[in-house]
Amino acid sequence: MHGIPLSYYLVLSAVLFACGVAGFLIKRNIITIFMSIELMLNGVNLAFVAFAARWNVLSGQVFVFFVMVVAAAEAAVGLAIIISVFRTRATLNVDEVNLMKL
Amino acid sequence: MLQLVLFAVFAGVCVAGAINLLAQKHPISSALSLIVVMGSLAAVYLLLGAEFVAVIQVIIYAGAIMVLFVFVIMLLNAGIEEHTRDSKVATLFGVPGLMIGGVLVAWLLIRQDPEAVTIGQLYGGPHQIAPLLFKDFILPFEITSVLILVAIMGAVVLARKEER
Question: What is the pTM assigned to this prediction?
Answer without folding.
Answer: 0.87
